[in-house]
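ingest -> fold -> write
write: protein_1
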Amino acid sequence: MKNKERIRQRFLKDALSVRLAGLAADLNRVASSARRATGSEATLAMLEESQYFIEWTAGEVAPEVGEELVNLQVVLALWRRAWPEMEKSQRQRTLLAVQAKQWSDRVLELALA
């Protein structure tokens, strides 16, 4: 992630609900990017960014929400690790796209709660 500290400082200026909505938007972009056979580096970068967004947010939410976010962070880490191989498969790209959209919807629910 380029300029991680600058991004972190900017991200932390927002209210918690705005940060969660930003994470949801990032996950939605992962879903969109994963569907395409090109742009795999962008998908990888967004997976990483989403992990950082969770890291910077999970400690400020209710414990059960934090647990849910940390579990998502682990899954994102697994996808990041597997992505260089998985991106070659339309089926795997579709799976990530579907999952990322579901995660995005769930995090948006948390943001609006």
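write: protein_2
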Amino acid sequence: MNRQLLWAGMMVLAAWASATPGLVQAAERAEDLYKTYCWQCHGMQGDGNGINVRDMPVQPRDHTDPREMAARSDEELFTAIKKGGQAINKSVLMPPWDGVLSDEEIHALVRYLRRLCQCRHGG
């Protein structure tokens, strides 16, 4: 019976992935973007413990902290990524990624951040 449930679950997942390849690719792309541009400060797991932390006077945000992340709206997160931390009265060490990342990529990163914290704004 366990094998049947496992097989059925795998089939449902495969069907979902094939029916929504754009969503799966976008999620994978956002994770790749995070690992390319964010992990040095925010860490590979998003916990704020990147390799640059020891040289930073301000601790990077822990993107896995649901309480902290729920306090920020998606618009604030978008603005912080696009225009830098200073745009939302946070650290000047958070650079603006406008010109490097498209708005679509930034929105994908915001969705990825919500996956990391497993939270929504205000929740």
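write: annotation protein_2
Helices lie at 2-19, 21-37, 39-42, 66-70, 74-83, 103-117.
The chain has one domain: 22-117.
pipeline exit 0
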